[in-house]
Amino acid sequence: MDLDTIISVLAATLRLTTPLLLACLAGLYSERSGIFDIGLEGKMLAAAFAAAAMAAVTGNMWAGLLVGILVSIGMSMIHAVASISLKGNQIISGVAINFLAAGLTTLLGLTWFHQGGRTPALAEGGRFLGLDLPFAFELKSVPVLGPIYDGLISGHNLFVYLAFLAVPLTAWVLYRTRFGLRLRAVGENPKAVDTAGISVVKLRYQALLITGLLCGVAGAYFSIAQGSGFGNNMTGGRGYIALAALIFAKWRPVPAMFACLLFGFLDAVQIRLQGVDLPLVGQVPVQAIQALPYVLTVVLLAGFIGKAVGPKAGGVPYTKEN
Amino acid sequence: MSVRRPLPRWADVALLPLLNLLLALIISGAVVMLIGQNPLDALRIITYGAFGYGEGFGYTLHFATNFVFTGLAVAVAAHAGLFNIGAEGQAYVAGIGAILVGLTMDQTHWLLVLPLAIIASAAIGGFWALIPGYLQAKRGSHVVITTIMFNFIASALMVYLLTRVLKPVGQMDPTSAAVTGAGKLPQLRDFMSFFGYAPLNITIFIAIAALILVYVLIWHTRLGFAMRTLGHNPVASSYAGISNSRLIMITMTISGALAGMVAVNQVLGVQARLQLDFPSGYGFVGIAVALMGRNHPIGIALSAMLFGALYQGGLELQFSMPAITRDMIVVIQALVILFTGAMEGLLRPGLESAFMLYGARQKAAAPAGPGS
Amino acid sequence: MTPWAIELIGINKRFGEVHANKDIDLKVKRGTIHGIVGENGAGKSTLMSILYGFYTADSGQILVNGTPHAITDSRHALQLGIGMVHQHFTLVDNFSILENVVLGVEHSPLLAPTFAKARAELKRLASEYSLDVDPGAIVEDVSVGLQQRVEILKALYRGAEVLILDEPTGVLTPAEADHLFRVLRVLREQGKTIILITHKLREIMAITDSVSVMRQGEMVATLETAGTSPEELAELMVGRRVLLRVEKGPANPGKVLLEVVDLVVTDDLKVPRVKGINFKVRAGEIVGIAGVAGNGQSELLEAVSGIRDQKSGDVVLNGSKLSLEGDDGAARARLAGLAHVPEDRQRMGLVINFEEWENSILGYQDDPAYGKGVLLDIDAARRQAAERMEKFDIRPTNVRLKTANFSGGNQQKIVLAREMERDPLVLVVGQPTRGVDIGAVEFIHNQIIKMRDAGKAILLVSVELDEIRSLSDRILVMFDGKIVGEADPATATEGELGLMMAGIGTKEAAP
């Protein structure tokens, strides 16, 4: 494989990693606070639709992004009310949110835009385009580094850079700030937080607010940055892959990035591997690569490679009386 | 904060779920209004479409058959404290069993095909659930996450099998060869023209049998007692000498086998071939059905009928009100799951207070009774 | 300024039907150690949780240093200088000690300055009160005694002037408890006020200046410790003269029915908890195992009854070795004739959501008495449950009632009836009267003695030394996973047993 191919595969990896990473970090905030979230997929899907619809109607991508985020936060708050305030089953709530998003996006898409569930295609200027970093063009001719800078590092849209910036930011918040300390504490032992005079409920709502925000950005990426408009079931199960990556990373931000990069890379190569004969193994069915993130997660969960133990209080509603 | 008196049993099993359902339907009505349609008209069309004439009713029963299987699958696992989100994938892979029996036995008689297809589908569906069960029992991985993962793995596996292995040479569509003879299960319309062209078939009797068997299993057998013990208190079950790990595996296998019955109904009863994504979400509906039916066979039968009616009525609705597609049903399903499952705590406190007030008034009205 | 650090006036608190605190008045003098005693469920912890702001009282007034305050939450209590060390620690296990100490009182949005300040403060507290800790150590890696020290440090770091300790010695070894008491005395010298909740009269006598007694939600007396006696306190606690001796005749030990040989048991984290134990229990005798909680008694019980796998060694029942491995070992132990009343009925012995009759067959669900083949004969089970209800005076007499709706004593009777009525060879009993009302205690003790007189071998584990002494025919003392001594209940003094329980003055157990 030549350098150009490698660069293009890696650049595709970055683009495919972006929504995974945003969703994965979103899940990290929620689950670190002790609330399971299998509704990442639904929140992304709803945000993708809302962002595209708003961008199409107003012609303003920023308005689209804002509405996408608001819708995702709204869904996250449904989850918060169910699982924090009403002490409901967090898994069931997540399942409900995924179905709600799947149903509503298609239904509203069909009735509002009459394009078979799609939102109207956004014009070139109506979505987030790639940003050329300074000197990308000038440095292009520098051997090896030039193409890497130009082809791999430069030229992505805002969301890609945001996603990767969110990783150190999350790590910093989690380990260096007061909020992070409390967040980690409430996911491990909410009673410790409660007896220290901090509101468990408020802390968990804050966490789910961030989860909603990040899922909103991830969803908008699909429809108003990577794509130009919403398509039916556009997120295609990425929310579950993000969940798998979160487990794979054992709920830590930097490993989460590497897990997402791995799954993004698998996604990028599976397109290229279609029908290609690999040495020793021969043709690898695309489906095998598609299933790999899930298989890897199952293997990890089974403790065959390390052991993934989540936040101790995860999934259990907090009640004072015990 | 005061401790509330629990609800009377009938209110807990019947009234509260009905109120939650009503809430879900009211919000669904709001969604219908949001897209500019009249929810009452929609309700009328759904009701007529589902129950108003023979063929519609046949379709309702046909969908309900699937939902009974997946609802029971979720419920059986739930009794043992396990949340099986993988009924969809289990039903999907079970299709292999159904179609292989159907194809190889196509030249025999359906009386031979049916039991063998049930066994094969149950075995493969059960196996697909047994793996997450084993991983939970022996390796401690959470069955919720693994069953989600197994849905995706099942999907990839089936795409591979249908595009590379089961597809007859020279055919474009990724489906298996068709069964034409004994592999196609008897349709009820062959005996009762009342059902029109509805694909209702003999599998509905299997569903009825499954309801009864699950009832007996959970409340009248030693195994069911053990499952309920495990579900309520795993420490107590190991104190009681129950092997929790073995029981988790047995329960998941039964759960997956029940989900696998969808394959018998869909593959041999309706489509006569194995198609891509044939369970089309029925596995997930099972979650709503089980929640709504309080994991009890009678409740499951009723809520399976409800969802069957929604599915069939929803199809009808699509013709009369093109603005409302079948996705409306997914929305209703989501709201039912949300209100009867996750937000069950929304109405309960109010209802409990209402009952306490009512109870207090009763007591005041009838003083000097013997102490309870 | 008043001499009172804390004054509670007319405190009331209800949980549904339960009146946990009735018109409580309490005054605690500054710079003293004030004890609060009472039986389980007397309302001590509730009262203190109200003072700490964890619960809000339905009515009543709280005065701190003479000024009334409506304490709304724990944060408010902390601001008023009230700190609490809970019975069950409220630490984040995978956090460092430093992180646990600052949690909730970080003075800056970023952690670095907070940590710097906390390190300095911990150093000061360490030298002032001899409370040394390694701030970087992870809590789950340090001993229980050290974890409690972290809890005390948390309170002091928050500027607590009044420190409430809820049953602080329940999880401590005697040496750790002694160290705790030394720390408390230093704290008193420095002018802190300490409220000690306990049900152990020995501790009250040893360390407090004054003591309040609670009974069934009411404050029945407040006394100067120097002017009272354990007997007087005990009487106040239970409301009548306590029958410390249970009526029983001499034992007639027969052949060995239960023998434990070189038993080694580990806990869930593979840490050895039972370290090579040998003993025998004969027909017609009660062997009591005394010890401070957490010295391996729970693991011993679970291993002998087949719930927890043993690492090595044998359990021999009536001459034949039991094979207990696998997670259904309890079923084989039962079949062989071993019945087990577990230490914690709600966690282990009962399914609290089951109807009474269902719990009356728990563990025996595969017994032929309850049906043929795979089916369960529900009518037979209910009939039998009703008979037992009458025999054991379990109330209310409704086999269809949910078990959660029975009182603690009646729940315990459900378990006892189930295990005793099977006519086992060996009965293994853990904490038979924990959280049980006085009336039921006598009944339960008499039932156990009746079993002994019927020729059963009984192994009794209890952390209540009085219970061990009054029921047992022989006492084995367990410390740090080993049997460190044997005593005759008729002659051994509490002091001797206490020393053995502390791991001091051991003598080898006669097998």
UniProtKB/TrEMBL annotation, chain A:
The UniProt record lists the keyword Transmembrane helix: yes
Pfam families: BPD_transp_2
Subcellular localization(s) per the UniProt record: Cell membrane
GO cellular component: plasma membrane
Keyword NADP appears in the UniProt entry: no
Membrane topology recorded in Swiss-Prot or TrEMBL: Multi-pass membrane protein
Principal location: membrane
Organism: Devosia nanyangense
Name listed for the protein in its UniProt record: ABC transporter permease
UniProt keyword annotations, A-Z: Cell membrane, Membrane, Transmembrane, Transmembrane helix
Residues that span the membrane, as ranges: 6-28, 91-113, 158-175, 207-224, 291-310
InterPro entries per UniProt: ABC_transp_permease
Source organism, top-level taxon: Bacteria
Annotated CDD domains: TM_PBP1_transp_TpRbsC_like
An annotated Gene Ontology molecular function: transmembrane transporter activity
Automatic annotation (TrEMBL), chain B:
Stretches of the chain forming a coiled coil according to its record: none
Keyword Transmembrane: yes
GO CC entries: plasma membrane
UniProt KW keywords: Cell membrane, Membrane, Transmembrane, Transmembrane helix
UniProt keyword Transmembrane, yes or no: yes
Family annotation (Pfam families): BPD_transp_2
InterPro entries, per database record: ABC_transp_permease
Localization of this protein: Cell membrane
Transmembrane stretches, start-end: 12-36, 56-77, 89-105, 111-131, 143-162, 194-218, 247-268, 328-347
GO molecular function terms noted in the UniProt entry: transmembrane transporter activity
CDD domains: TM_PBP1_transp_TpRbsC_like
Mode of membrane association: Multi-pass membrane protein
Name of the protein: ABC transporter permease
